[in-house]
Design goal:
Elements lengths: L1 E5 L12 E4 L9 E11 L1 H9 L8 E2 L4 E8 L11 E4 L12 E5 L3 E3 L6 H5 L2 H14 L16 E5 L4 H13 L3 E5 L3 H10 L3 E3 L5 H8 L6 E4 L3 H11 L5 E4 L17 E4 L4 H5 L6 H14 L7 E4 L5 H13 L5 E5 L3
Parallel strand pairs: 9-10, 9-12, 10-11, 12-13, 13-14, 15-16
Antiparallel strand pairs: 1-2, 1-4, 3-5, 3-7, 3-16, 5-6, 6-8
Length: 342
C-alpha cells in the first residue's frame, strides 16, 4: 500500500524529511478496524513527532492522526462498524499513522462521519474536536459557573489562539452549547475575522498584552481561560485577567509552567492531552467514539461547521512537507487537509 514516512528527523524543507514509500497492507485483529483513508489533516503534534521520534534503523515512521475514510475490514471483536461504513477519527500515539492508504485503528475511538460533510471536511475535525470538547466539558467543566467576586460577570471564557484548529472548534462549542461570552485572540485581520465568523463575541490581539484589552471591554473577568498556544508568553497576562476561583486549561508544552501567580486567586490548572484515553486504554476509552458521534450529530444538525481552512491537494510526500512547513510557522488558519491518493 502507498504511505508517507521518514527514517530520520529533518527540517520539512528537506526532501528526505517525508518520502513516498510502499508498505504491506495491515490486517485487523481484536477491536481494530482497517480504514481505507480518503483524507487526512495535519496537526502541530505531527510536526513535533517528526522532529522527536526516531524509527528503528532501516524502518520508516508513518505520521498522521486525523483521518476520514471507509471501513475496509474489521477485527473479530468489533461491534460498532462493518465494511463500507464511512468514519472519522484521530488515531493514537504509539501506532502507525494515518498517512497511509490503509490504516488500523481501535473502533472505540472512531466516530461515524457526518453525513453532510465531504471526506476532507470531516478529516479536519476529529483531533481538535476531541481536544476542545475534553478541555471545555471534562477539564474546565464550563457548565459549572465560577462564583462572581464583586462587580462584573464571570460568565465568559477567553480562548487564546482562536483561529487555530482547536480554537476554531472551541469557539463554536462554547457559543452553540453554552451561554458564555466568547472572547478569542488572533493577531491578523483575516484570523480575527475568522474568529468572529465562528461566533466569537470579542476578539483580542495576542500580539500585545491581553489584560488591558480585556479591561477595555468592560465586561468583567472571565471565569475560564483556555490557552491553545504560546502559553508561556501569555501566562502572566492570563493570571492577571482571570477571575478569582477561575479555571485555566492549556494544551501546549511551555518550557516552564509557573502557576504560582494563580495562587492568590485559587485558580485551578488543567492540562488536556487527547491521547490519554487511548494511550492508557482507560475504562472510558469508548467516550471518544461517542464524543465524535455527537460532534457528527451536531454538524449534521447545522450547529457546528467544519474548520477546514485549506485543501492542500492529494496525499503525497511533497504536499505533506509543504503543509508541515506551514504548520511550523504558526500562521495556519483552521485546519489544512490533504485528500485522495494520486
Amino acid at each position: 500500500m502507498r504511505a508517507i514516512g521518514y527514517q530520520s528527523s529533518l527540517p520539512a524543507t528537506d526532501p528526505a524529511s517525508l518520502t513516498d514509500i510502499d508498505l504491506p497492507r495491515p490486517t485487523p485483529t481484536g477491536h481494530d478496524i482497517l480504514v481505507a483513508v480518503h483524507a487526512v489533516s495535519v496537526n502541530p503534534v505531527d510536526t513535533k513527532v517528526r522532529m522527536r521520534a526516531q524509527p528503528e534503523p532501516g524502518a520508516h515512521k508513518v505520521l498522521g492522526f486525523d483521518a476520514a475514510g471507509t471501513v475496509e475490514a474489521v477485527g473479530p471483536d468489533v461491534t460498532r462498524f462493518q465494511p463500507g461504513d464511512p468514519v472519522f477519527y484521530a488515531g493514537a500515539l504509539g501506532r502507525s499513522g494515518t498517512n497511509a492508504e490503509f490504516h488500523l485503528v481501535d473502533e472505540r475511538i472512531v466516530g461515524r462521519k457526518p453525513v453532510s460533510l465531504s471526506m476532507p471536511e470531516a478529516a479536519a475535525l476529529p483531533l481538535t474536536a476531541i481536544t476542545a470538547w475534553e478541555t471545555l466539558f471534562d477539564r474546565l467543566d464550563i457548565r459549572k459557573p465560577v462564583p462572581a467576586a464583586g462587580p462584573g460577570s464571570t460568565g465568559a471564557i477567553l480562548i487564546v489562539g482562536g483561529a487555530g484548529g482547536v480554537g476554531s472548534i472551541a469557539i463554536q462549542l462554547v457559543r452553540q452549547l453554552t451561554d458564555l461570552v466568547v472572547i478569542a485572540t488572533a493577531s491578523r485581520p483575516e484570523t480575527q475575522q475568522w474568529c468572529r465568523d465562528l461566533g466569537a463575541h470579542h476578539v483580542l490581539d495576542h500580539g500585545t498584552k491581553l489584560a488591558p484589552q480585556l479591561a477595555a471591554l468592560n465586561i468583567g473577568r472571565p471565569g475560564f481561560v483556555f490557552s491553545t498556544t504560546n502559553t508561556g508568553q501569555h501566562l502572566a497576562d492570563c493570571a492577571e485577567l482571570i477571575a478569582p476561583q477561575g479555571r485555566f486549561a492549556l494544551i501546549d508544552d511551555p518550557e516552564i509552567l509557573d502557576i504560582k501567580p494563580f495562587k492568590q486567586k485559587s485558580v485551578s490548572t488543567h492540562w488536556e492531552f487527547m491521547f490519554t484515553r487511548s494511550m492508557f486504554t482507560t475504562a472510558d476509552i469508548g467516550e471518544q467514539g461517542n464524543l465524535l458521534d455527537e460532534v457528527a450529530r451536531l454538524v449534521d444538525a447545522g450547529t457546528l461547521r467544519t474548520t477546514l481552512g485549506e485543501n492542500a491537494g492529494p496525499i503525497t510526500a511533497a504536499n505533506l512537507r509543504r503543509v508541515h512547513a506551514l504548520i511550523e510557522t504558526g500562521k495556519a488558519k483552521g485546519k489544512i487537509v490533504l485528500a485522495d491518493w494520486p
